[in-house]
Design a protein that fits this description.
The complex is a heterodimer of chains A (124) and B (279).
Chain A: E1 4-9, H1 13-23, E2 29-34, H2 37-46, E3 51-54, H3 63-71, E4 81-85, H4 90-99, E5 103-106, H5 111-122
Parallel strand pairs in A: 1-2, 1-3, 3-4, 4-5
Helix pairs in contact in A: 1-5, 2-3
Chain B: H1 2-127, H2 131-146, E1 148-157, E2 163-170, E3 180-181, H3 185-193, E4 197-198, E5 212-218, E6 221-231, H4 240-265, H5 269-277
Antiparallel strand pairs in B: 1-2, 1-6, 2-3, 4-5, 5-6
Helix pairs in contact in B: 1-2, 1-4, 2-4
Classes of the chains: A alpha/beta (124), B alpha+beta (279).
Chain lengths: 124, 279
């Protein structure tokens, strides 16, 4: 039975599938998927999550707004957030971290890198 | 008077004899005492020597025992040294094996990662039902999987002069309205030869010059060319998985677009499948 639940917020079905595929290597992790920030917030409201992985550039609500909303949420404000994005500029990284993201990975991703970061954030 | 003199002489002789006897006895006893003393001293000396020898013997015995213990200890030390060397050698072997396993594990991880990328790319490419969706998948694949920042898809336009025209562009406005003759330049050459072109991203280059040209092949025909003009800031070089993805794109993208196009024209998919059954 999964001990941890992860929310993956990513508008690209391909990328989402790749992230979920990478996370499937962690046997004690249950993954819930969301298409964009708003969908992510809905899924967050419906359950309890131990970690959130989100893209930045998404329709309806982008990843940075989602980070802000999570940090002001009573239930999930302390949940670790990992950003996976194509935005590789240092100022983008700093902005995301200042808003409350705990980790920032740029695309293209490598599964071991994602798994290692998730383990680090969940302390497993 | 003579008799008196004689008896006087006798007395003197007797007294002399007595004196001699006493002297003899005195000498005898003195010598006897001296001899006894000498004997006693000698006995004492011998006793001391015996005691000394006994002590020496005990010390030698002790030393012998100690030597045996040392010999045992030395043998044990040698045995332990051998054991230590053997263990050190085993540890070295185990470390080497562990490193080999870690290398193999890293290789397997990389392979798995590559397989996952290829699986997802292939799955998404063939799961798209409309040509526009296939182009969208191509866009996602090039941007998110390869790390391309600007790219275009050129389609071949048949005619007297076969040309290539852009049907999809991402952050490369300079390709809009262009028409490339078959075999012309890097893009036209990739189409005519069906051989991919890959430049080194580290080398300085004009931004409008292609970095990668991947011919979209369908058997012997080339239906288009995928051209990458630039990479994301964090993408400094191509890695193994990129080359695998380029190969996949070369083989699968054309059939995916054409398949999606044919499917889009088919009003009833089930009827279409029945038709194919009779082929």
């Amino acid at each position: 039975m999964a001990e941890y639940t992860c929310l993956v917020v990513e508008d690209s079905p391909m990328m989402r599938q790749l992230i979920v595929f990478a996370l499937s290597r962690l046997k004690n992790l249950n993954v819930v998927e969301a298409d964009d920030g708003v969908d992510g917030l809905k899924k967050l409201a419906a359950g309890r999550f131990d970690i959130v992985i989100t893209d930045i550039n998404m329709p309806i609500m982008d990843g940075l707004k989602l980070v802000k909303r999570i940090r002001s949420d009573a239930v999930h404000r302390d949940v670790p957030i990992m950003i996976i994005t194509t935005e590789g500029a240092e100022e983008d990284r700093q902005r995301a971290l200042q808003l409350g993201a705990n980790a920032y990975i740029t695309k293209p991703i490598q599964a071991p890198q994602v798994i290692s970061k998730v383990k680090e954030l969940l302390r497993i | 008077m003579a008799q008196n003199k004689k008896s006087e002489t006798n007395l003197k002789d007797a007294m002399g004899l007595v004196a001699q006897r006493e002297e003899f006895l005195e000498t005898f006893f003195r010598k006897g005492a001296e001899f006894a003393n000498d004997l006693l001293a000698e006995v004492q000396e011998l006793r001391d020597q015996i005691s000394e020898l006994e002590n020496e013997n005990a010390a030698l015995k002790l030393q012998l025992a100690s030597d045996d213990a040392i010999r045992d200890l030395l043998a044990k030390i040698e045995h332990l040294e051998n054991e230590k060397n053997s263990l050190a050698s085993k540890v070295t072997n185990v470390k080497r094996e562990k490193e080999d396993y870690l290398d193999k594990f890293a290789d397997v991880e990389r392979e798995l990662d590559a397989m996952a990328n290829l699986y997802v790319a292939s799955y998404q490419l063939h799961a798209a039902f409309k040509p526009q969706d296939v182009l969208s998948v191509l866009e996602q694949m090039l941007m998110q999987f390869v790390g391309a920042s600007s790219f275009a898809v050129f389609a071949s336009r048949p005619g007297e002069q076969k040309t290539l025209e852009p049907i999809h562009a991402f952050h490369c406005g300079h390709v809009a309205g262009t028409s490339i003759a078959w075999g012309e330049g890097l893009i036209g050459e990739a189409a005519s030869t069906q051989v991919s072109y890959l430049a080194d991203p580290a080398k300085p280059r004009d931004q409008e010059e292609p970095l990668v040209c991947i011919p979209m092949s369908l058997g012997e025909s080339t239906v288009g060319v995928i051209v990458i003009f630039g990479l994301l800031e964090q993408k400094e070089k191509f890695v193994d998985i990129d080359f695998e993805l380029f190969k996949l794109l070369a083989v699968h993208s054309a059939s995916a677009i054409i398949g999606a196009g044919l499917l889009a024209r088919e009003s009833d998919i089930t009827a279409g499948l029945t038709q194919y059954k009779s082929l």
